[in-house]
């Protein structure tokens, strides 16, 4: 945690409360006041980025996250948020660097593994994506079940239908009520190796 002066700590708490109450304009003002008082408060910069993101101001959010990790290059949350923001903007190539850095800080993050795998898929580097998506599944088998779908898509595109079938089956075990489950079952039936 960042050590703030008592006055800045009160300001930080007030800004967080405004964010919780969805008073984003007020929160932005408070966080901006805080980082003006103390430009090294990397947590406040990251929180400011998140409020900007919620308020649909991605350019400002990216600058705030960049400030946070400029001050503290190994700040996991800032790295993750910057990577996710770039994923949302479809800047997949740009997401790879902060997500890779986030994993160097916390390799046990299912989210960072999943997003990095997805970024590699989107830039057509499927062989790099596989390891990260599998790691996300290992770390959070239910929460990251969608990784099975991404792997199946990759395997299907590479003509490895048996592996795609296996991934679809694993996904359906975890998410049997999936909206397009019929479509996946039809694919499995059509492509499952005959015994």
What is the topology?
Elements: H1 6-20, H2 24-37, H3 42-54, H4 58-71, H5 76-88, H6 92-105, H7 110-122, H8 126-139, H9 146-157, H10 161-174, H11 181-191
What can you tell me about this protein's structure?
The chain is an all-alpha fold. It contains eleven helices and no strands. The N and C termini lie far apart (57 Å). The relative contact order is 0.06.
Short synopsis of the structure:
Helices cover 75% and strands 0% of the residues.
**Main pleated-sheet profile:** none
What value does the average pLDDT take? 96
Uncertain spans: none
Strand content: under 5%
State the separation between the terminal residues, measured CA to CA: 57 Å
Keywords:
mainly alpha, single chain, elongated, about 200 residues, about 0% strand
């Amino acid at each position: 945690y960042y050590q703030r002066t008592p006055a800045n700590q009160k300001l930080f708490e007030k800004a967080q409360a405004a964010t919780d109450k969805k008073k984003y304009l007020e929160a932005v003002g408070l966080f901006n006041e805080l980082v003006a008082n103390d430009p090294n408060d990397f947590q406040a910069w990251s929180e400011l980025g998140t409020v900007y993101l919620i308020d649909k101001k991605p350019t400002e959010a990216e600058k705030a996250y960049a400030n946070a990790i400029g001050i503290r290059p190994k700040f996991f949350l800032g790295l993750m948020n910057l990577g996710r923001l770039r994923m949302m903007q479809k800047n997949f190539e740009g997401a790879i660097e902060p997500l890779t850095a986030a994993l160097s800080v916390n390799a046990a993050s299912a989210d960072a593994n999943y997003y990095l795998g997805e970024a590699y898929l989107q830039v057509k580097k499927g062989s790099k994506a596989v390891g990260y998506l599998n790691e996300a599944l290992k770390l959070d088998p239910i929460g990251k079940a969608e990784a099975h779908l991404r792997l199946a898509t990759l395997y299907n595109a590479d003509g490895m239908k048996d592996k795609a079938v296996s991934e679809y089956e694993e996904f359906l075990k975890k998410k049997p009520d999936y909206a397009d489950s019929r479509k996946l079952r039809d694919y499995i039936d059509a492509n499952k190796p005959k015994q």
